[in-house]
Amino acid sequence: MTAMPALKGQETWQDQVLPILRSFDVRHVVYVPDAGHAAAIRGAEADNEITSLALTTEEEGIGYLAGAWLGGERGALLMQSSGVGNCLNTLALQAMTRFPLLMLVTMRGDWAEFNPWQNPMGQATEAALQLMGVRTWRADHPDEVAPLIQGAATMAFNGDESCAVLLGQRLIGEKKWVK
User: Fold this and answer.
1) Whole-model pTM above 0.85?
2) What is the number of domains present in the chain?
3) Percent of the chain with pLDDT over 70
4) What's the domain range around 56?
């Protein structure tokens, strides 16, 4: 995988994700393991004030975060675009209860995708989320990530909205098939 490198001494966009979540008092980070979210996952696992949970499947995260909210705590769901398809029916829970739902979605089936199985859901991700009432924003350049996550978190946690930031494949880098 070749990602956009940070300049020496500068923080990468990946390093900015967890501090933004912390600034919104996020106490739960739930995820299906993904290289694009690796820095946030490692940081959440190392933070004693955050419960990090690896999910079996992405839709479990929506129910988990609804429960965290009922318990008075905030959380975020980290997943790949292929997992969005698993969540579509479960997104009705947020639509009916209006709990704050923040999702960070790394894109596959996007720019320079080598795996054709990723393409159908990758191309449908944003439209599918929007059809389920999720507000979406897309970051394709490192300088877009922090402000988009900040804005989405504000809308989710202060307005009880369902929000997703789509992290384009150009951010994460081109994946290479390794035999």
Assistant:
1) yes
2) 1
3) 94
4) 13-172
